[in-house]
Design brief:
- With 197 residues, the chain is of the alpha+beta class.
- 45% of the residues lie in helices and 16% in strands.
- Strands 2-1-5-4-3 form a 5-stranded antiparallel sheet, sandwiched between helices.
- α4 packs across α5, α6 crosses α7 and α7 crosses α8 (183-195).
Length: 197
């Protein structure tokens, strides 16, 4: 019989030094936020994201005037009162790239929210095809949605598709109706939720 060995020295949690080292050197941008959403701590990848302008500065993850702040505040309230264990916010960063912010609240840790932020990647061809199948989107609607997930504004989508901005907006309204969401952010949030792990 072979002996099974564990990488951990005992049944307890990792030593504090190991946890601190993991947090600091993890490749994902990780943050510890207070109950109001201000950054209390972040790792090296998080500091790099802040320095690049992808996330808010001055101690706030999303500043009070950011267009996604009401959605962020609503999610924070649900997390702080334990009505919801986790959530995701999709927002445009300072350079107009889409970012996904995953938030989680632990029931035994008060007044702290743990966050992971990353740039949203274009939805893959397979992901777009699955969205088409689930929501019954037309070929033109899928083309518009695919361009949207890559961060292109409606005017640029119209130029690339060689159609007017009014046609693009008509496709956007149809996409939102078929997906059962309100606005571009709702369609993008659902697209990223369904195709991103």
């Amino acid at each position: 019989m072979t002996e099974r060995r564990s990488f951990l020295s005992g049944p307890g949690p990792l030593p504090q030094d190991d946890c601190t080292s993991w947090f600091e050197h993890d490749g994902l941008a990780r943050f510890v936020l207070n109950a109001q959403g201000a950054i209390q701590q972040c790792n090296a990848a998080g500091r790099a994201m802040i320095a690049s302008g992808m996330v808010g500065a001055g101690g706030a993850f999303l500043c009070q005037k950011h267009r996604n702040r009401p959605e962020f505040d609503s999610l924070l309230a649900r997390l702080n009162t334990h009505r919801q264990p986790s959530g995701r916010v999709l927002f445009r960063s300072g350079d107009d790239d889409w970012c996904l912010l995953d938030l989680i609240a632990l029931p035994d840790v008060e007044n702290k929210i743990f966050a992971t932020a990353r740039p949203a990647q274009c939805v893959s061809t397979e992901g777009i095809e699955s969205l088409r199948a689930v929501f019954g989107l037309t070929r033109a609607e899928i083309t518009v949605l695919s361009h949207l997930t890559c961060g292109e504004p409606p005017k640029e989508i119209g130029r690339q598709m060689d159609v007017s901005i009014h046609t693009v907006r008509a496709h956007l309204r149809a996409i939102c109706m078929r997906m059962g969401v309100k606005g571009i952010n709702g369609a993008l949030r659902l697209s990223f939720q369904l195709t991103t792990t």
